């Protein structure tokens, strides 16, 4: 449910004249139709939610994409190139890289969660994230917590840094925090991580609600 449950409260979906396009990976079990579309319809129905999809007034379309897929949005100086790569997570997941498609806006960032870095640092994510300006990755656990959570599909800040180094990323931002970690716990984790990451020469920090980063 944590992968879906925000959508019923997405206010634009309830308004006329709004076009919403949802892109998602082709996941196991999708042979009977778009899995994300079916899942959203199912969760937004009785007894789970009072306002079903037929009551949404926006025009909503769904598209499935595969790893290595490329998508171009807009045109001219505002155009963006979006690419995808497979992540290591039970059930399947994709990372997305967004590049400014023009010379004057040649900046990029990669969003990679949910993800458990594999043993090899040469993997689809590090290839996708080559020399990106910003890598946003899943560092949910401390190294001690991770010992008993191997295979759950999430990593540690240290594992994220290993991939950032392999990708020659220019900056690393950690996200997907564990719900049991308080703000003070996260602050302590961030401080220790920044100390250990100093030798990498990659700026590292933890994401914060409402944060804006200019590339």
Written description of the protein model:
By secondary structure, the chain is of the alpha/beta class. The protein folds into two domains: 7-65, no CATH class; 70-206, Metallo-beta-lactamase, Chain A (4-Layer Sandwich). 21% of the residues lie in helices and 23% in strands. A seven-stranded mixed sheet has the order 3-4-5-6-7-8-9. The longest helix has 15 residues, at 183-197. The mean pLDDT is 90.
Brief synopsis:
The chain is of the alpha/beta class. It has helices at 35-43, 124-128, 143-147, 157-167, 183-197, and strands spanning 19-25, 59-65, 70-73, 80-86, 94-100, 108-112, 134-138, 172-175, 204-206.
Give the strand tally. 9
Average pLDDT level: 90
- Helix % is 10-25%
SSE succession? EHEEEEEHEHHEHE
* Strand residue percentage: 15-25%
CATH architecture of the largest domain: 4-Layer Sandwich
User: Any idea of the CATH class of the largest domain?
Assistant: Alpha Beta
Q: Radius of gyration in whole Å, from Cα?
A: 19 Å
Roughly how many Å apart are the termini? 33 Å
Helix count? 5
Structural class: alpha/beta
Question: What descriptors fit this protein?
Answer:
215 residues, alpha/beta, Metallo-beta-lactamase, Chain A, 2 domains, 7-stranded mixed β-sheet, 5 helices, globular
């Amino acid at each position: 449910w944590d992968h879906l449950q925000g959508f019923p409260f997405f206010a634009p979906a309830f308004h006329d004249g709004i076009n919403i396009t949802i892109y998602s990976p082709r996941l196991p079990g999708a042979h009977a139709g778009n899995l994300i579309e079916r899942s959203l319809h199912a969760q937004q129905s009785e007894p789970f939610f009072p306002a079903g999809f037929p009551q949404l007034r926006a025009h909503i379309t769904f598209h499935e994409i595969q790893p290595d897929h490329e998508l171009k949005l807009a045109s001219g100086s505002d155009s963006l190139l979006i690419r995808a790569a497979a992540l290591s997570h039970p059930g399947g997941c994709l990372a997305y890289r967004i590049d400014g498609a023009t010379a004057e806006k040649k900046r990029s960032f990669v969003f990679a969660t949910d993800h458990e870095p594999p043993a090899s640092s040469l993997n689809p994510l590090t290839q996708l994230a080559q020399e990106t300006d910003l890598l946003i990755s899943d560092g949910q656990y401390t190294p001690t917590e991770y010992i008993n959570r191997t295979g759950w599909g999430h990593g540690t800040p240290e594992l994220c840094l290993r991939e950032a180094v392999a990708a020659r990323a220019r900056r690393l931002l950690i996200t997907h925090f564990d719900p049991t970690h308080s703000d003070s716990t996260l602050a302590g984790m961030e401080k220790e991580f920044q100390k250990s990451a100093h030798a990498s020469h990659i700026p590292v920090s933890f994401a914060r609600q409402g944060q804006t980063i200019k590339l």
